[in-house]
Amino acid sequence: MKKRFDSLSPERLQTRKQVHEVCRLFSKSPSKGNLKRLKSIFGSCGQDVFIESGFHCDYADGIFLGDRVFININCTILDGAEVNIGQDTLIGPNVQILTVSHDVNPQERLNKYNYATNIQIGKNVWVAAGVIILPGVTIGDNSVIGAGSVVSKDVDPDSLYLGNPAVKVKSL
Questions:
Q1: How wide is the angle at C-alpha 82 spanned by C-alphas 8 and 21, nearest 5°?
Q2: What is the DSSP letter of 74?
Q3: What are phi and psi of 17, to 5 degrees?
């Protein structure tokens, strides 16, 4: 379900400022202490989660990570809505997970509203390098999204998707 929110409200600006500082410190020095601090601001974080430096998010409390999730370098999660990542999922370098969008109508866009829709990534998924996942997408368990793909629609479980827009290439 799409929700509308004002990302420029004082509360949202303050939260982003605090979360961005945690992300900045982690990226500058991806020590165990900074990783622990980063994980502590997520909605939930499973066991044995590994995150490489360059991680960025806006609010953090809507990010839910299962056990043994691996997030490679330079991952960006715009988390105006929930992002659920299932256990044993691999997120490649330079992946963007974007729950947020804006008005398409130019006149309405002047209001600067944000719209956010949850993203669900199943268990044992491989999201390869440079993938962009757009708002409202569900990716089924055991699927693979090929490098550079743009995922704008739901992904079937046990499937390989490639391209822009990402399309099903085969069942796995």
A1: 55
A2: S
A3: -60, -45
CATH number of the 3-171 domain: 2.160.10.10
pLDDT digits (tens, 9 = 90+) for 105-137: 999 999 989 999 999 999 999 999 999 999 999
Q: Answer yes or no: is pLDDT of 31 > 90.
A: no
Is 56 an active-site residue? no
Q: What percent of the chain clears pLDDT 70, i.e. is strictly above it?
A: 100
* CB count in 10 Å sphere of residue 112: 11
Q: Which residues of 71-86 are buried (b: 16+ CB within 10 A; e: fewer)?
A: bbbbbbbbbbbbbbbb
- Which residue matches tokens 């743009």? 150
Task: Quote the tokens at residue 51.
Answer: 């995150």
Candidates 4, 36, 102, 109; catalytic one: 102
pTM beyond 0.90:
yes
The per-residue pLDDT for 5 is: 87
Q: Which 3 state secondary structure label does DSSP give 13?
A: helix
The dihedral over CA atoms of 16, 44, 132, 114, expressed in degrees to the nearest 10, equals -40
